[in-house]
Design brief:
By secondary structure, this protein is of the alpha+beta class. It contains seven helices and seven strands. A three-stranded antiparallel sheet has the order 5-6-7, with no helix packed on it. A two-stranded parallel ribbon has the order 1-2. The radius of gyration is 22 Å and the shape is elongated.
């Protein structure tokens, strides 16, 4: 669908205001910083009003402060535009900043999906626990007893919550 120049200008200015980059509208791309380039790329993607936006490592090349700012802006944009965003990253900190739900992939397979709290509190296996930087990882045998669980490891018996062993083994 072709829009008039006035409609296009209005939409570009609206997205620029949303991203706080109005000051970049008259600048050449060669003079932009990494963070400014990322914002311009995002603006270009948003101008078509997508229902779903897939971002592949959108802030990986940015310094920590700029990364945090851009992630915050991404959350605001997602909410303001009622937009579904798939944000691919390898950084747990970044995932915490941008996500309502997270998915963990291993060898091209999605192995766990849930809220950040669900995934943090119940990783489905060693790989997920390591990704989440859990430090207390040990091997043992878990058995269900009296509505709870007992974990035997290195001669110790630890009481734990009830376990859904059917779910864990699938």
């Amino acid at each position: 669908k072709h829009e008039t120049k006035d409609v296009i200008k209005f939409e570009v200015e609206k997205i620029a205001r949303l991203l706080h980059i109005e000051y970049l509208l008259k600048r050449k791309i060669k003079g932009l910083s990494g963070g400014e380039c990322q914002r311009v790329a995002l603006a270009r993607a948003l101008i078509s009003r997508p229902k779903v936006l897939i971002l592949d490592e959108p802030v990986s090349a940015l310094d920590e402060y700029t990364r945090s700012c851009v992630c915050s802006e991404l959350r605001n944009i997602q909410r303001n535009m009622n937009l579904s965003v798939i944000h691919v990253c390898h950084s747990f900190d970044e995932a915490q900043m941008v996500s309502d739900r997270v998915g963990i992939m291993q060898k091209g397979r999605l192995i766990q999906v849930g809220t950040l709290e669900e995934v943090m509190n119940r990783p489905v296996g060693l790989f997920v626990a390591q990704i989440l930087r859990h430090k207390n990882i040990f091997q043992g045998i878990a058995k269900i007893r009296n509505g709870g669980s007992i974990i035997n490891t290195n001669g110790l018996s630890l009481k734990g919550p009830s376990l859904d062993l059917q779910k864990e083994s699938s």
